[in-house]
Recover the amino acids of this structure.
């Protein structure tokens, strides 16, 4: 059944990816109407997450933010499928790195310094990875969760690796990073996943007690690569700018919890600045402390 679903969906997905951007966003508008007004996809999760994160906002403000989020979610979904066929030129037009970000990356490359990149599910992180691989001298590796459906997992793998990005299954992260020490690499961790309660770092994030995945910190302190933070800002519909900054130069010299607190606080700042482009439909707070 999974194979049948894949082969039925594949031509449609390629057709979507070939649509001109104005038509793509018209399709997205239709998706938004269905998702928000008819299906009400995960509305309870979205509204609960937003209200708990922004208790100072009125119901009207939360409702407006939710509508903006669902529009962005539909855009993001179709933009991701656009990766199947988008050209290098178009990719760099729609997702650029700031001059300052390129200067940071060039400086690190000149020193033959491999890096750990931390970012969240904010803006179009998929496009940011593509542009990174096209613009930067480092070989980008992204930590990911393989999908249970091997056919769609293969499709996502092809999409993400089209421009040279490598993928590392989460369970093999440290092993692969050690194996890659002979090359100039940046290994990207998406740091706002929802970890299990056991072994998580607990902290206040968006006004709530939140478990944070500690794997980034544990690996960084072992391998001692500088940690950079990536911020993906949505400039307007279909256009993004990526900035990076060095968060920690010597991870092994930091106290326990410092790295986790630092990159989580930095992400929180970006979410507050542009909340509609973070993934609110994820059950981020399904675990409670205690």
């Amino acid at each position: 059944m999974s194979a049948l679903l894949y082969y039925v969906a594949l031509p449609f997905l390629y057709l979507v990816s070939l649509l001109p951007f104005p038509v793509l966003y018209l399709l997205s508008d239709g998706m938004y109407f269905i998702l928000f007004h008819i299906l009400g996809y995960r509305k309870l999760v979205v509204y609960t997450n937003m209200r708990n994160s922004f208790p100072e906002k009125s119901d009207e403000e939360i409702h407006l933010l939710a509508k903006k989020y669902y529009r962005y979610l539909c855009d993001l979904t179709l933009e991701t499928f656009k990766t199947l066929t988008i050209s290098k030129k178009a990719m760099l037009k729609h997702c650029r790195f700031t001059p300052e970000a390129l200067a940071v990356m060039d400086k690190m490359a000149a020193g033959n310094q491999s890096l750990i990149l931390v970012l969240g599910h904010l803006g179009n992180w998929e496009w940011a990875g593509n542009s990174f691989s096209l613009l930067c001298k480092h070989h980008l590796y992204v930590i990911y969760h393989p999908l249970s459906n091997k056919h769609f997992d293969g499709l996502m793998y092809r999409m993400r690796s089209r421009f040279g990005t490598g993928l590392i299954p989460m369970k093999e992260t440290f092993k692969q990073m050690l194996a890659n020490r002979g090359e100039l690499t940046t290994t990207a961790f998406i740091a706002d996943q929802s970890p299990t309660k056991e072994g998580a770092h607990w902290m206040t994030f968006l006004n709530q007690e939140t478990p944070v995945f500690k794997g980034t910190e544990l690996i960084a302190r072992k391998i001692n690569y500088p940690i950079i933070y990536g911020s993906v800002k949505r400039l307007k519909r279909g256009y993004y700018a990526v900035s990076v900054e060095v968060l920690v130069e010597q991870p092994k010299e930091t106290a326990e919890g410092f790295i986790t607190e630092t990159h989580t606080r930095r992400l929180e700042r970006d979410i507050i600045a542009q909340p509609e482009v973070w993934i609110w439909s994820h059950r981020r707070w399904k675990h409670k402390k205690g």
Remarks:
- The CA atoms of residues 94 and 239 lie 5 Å apart.
